[in-house]
Amino acid sequence: MERLYRRLGHAYLNSVDVYYLLLKLEVNKMSQSMVVTDCHKIFIGGTIAMITDEYSKAKTITLMTAEDTLKQFLNIQPDLIITDILLPAKHGESPQISTGIQLLKTLMKKYPHLNIMVQSEHINNLIQIKSEIDEHQGGFVLANKSLGYAEILNRVKWCLQGLTHIQDIQKNSRKESADDYTN
To answer: Tens digit of pLDDT for each residue in 70-119?
Structure first.
């Protein structure tokens, strides 16, 4: 919330501010565009189903590689990207955590106000880029793929509000290497 306060130039939000923020979010539900990037079709299908239930008018684009994701950003500027960090660079290549982390770094640098939600089983690897995440001006929210439907939708809302939620990164966990998760 501190980042949201800073952006609004307020030391606090009063009830009128909260009302207008919620109203803006509800109006935006009708016209939002979202990109979902994951190399596992089953997760893409589930994520799209959740988004469609909550944001029926949202335009959604599904992608499976880092390369496709970067190319799409030339054509559209989505309100939100939901991505795994275990991704292949190109079609036919094995997914690597390092590819997803590089994708995030590129997106944060080129699109500093982009709302990013990382939906992954490998979120502890994001400790590598925590300083970049902290500096990112758009929303940045983490969601483990094991979270329930309602919690994932909650996190989508947080991200669209421009909030940052990265408390799920465990600093003391063993960092997974890109080689730990290849297909």
So the answer is: 998 878 889 999 999 999 999 999 999 999 999 999 999 999 999 999 99
d(CA 23, CA 84) in angstroms, rounded, equals: 30
101 alpha carbon, distance to own chain's centre: 12
Paired tokens of 88: 């292949």
Tokens 């909650």 belong to 154
String of b and e for 135-165 (b: at least 16 CB within 10 Å)? ebebbbbbbbbeeeeeebbebbbbbbbbbbe
Q: CA 67 to CA 116: how far, in whole Å? A: 17
Bridge partners (DSSP) listed for residue 62 = 36
Amino acid at the residue 90: K
**How many angstroms separate the CA atoms of 84 and 45, rounded?**
14
| pLDDT under 70: residue ranges of the chain | 1-31, 171-183
User: What is the torsional sign of CA 123, 116, 78, 111?
Assistant: negative
Model pLDDT, residue 12: 52
Contact of 107 with 116, CB cutoff 8 Å: yes
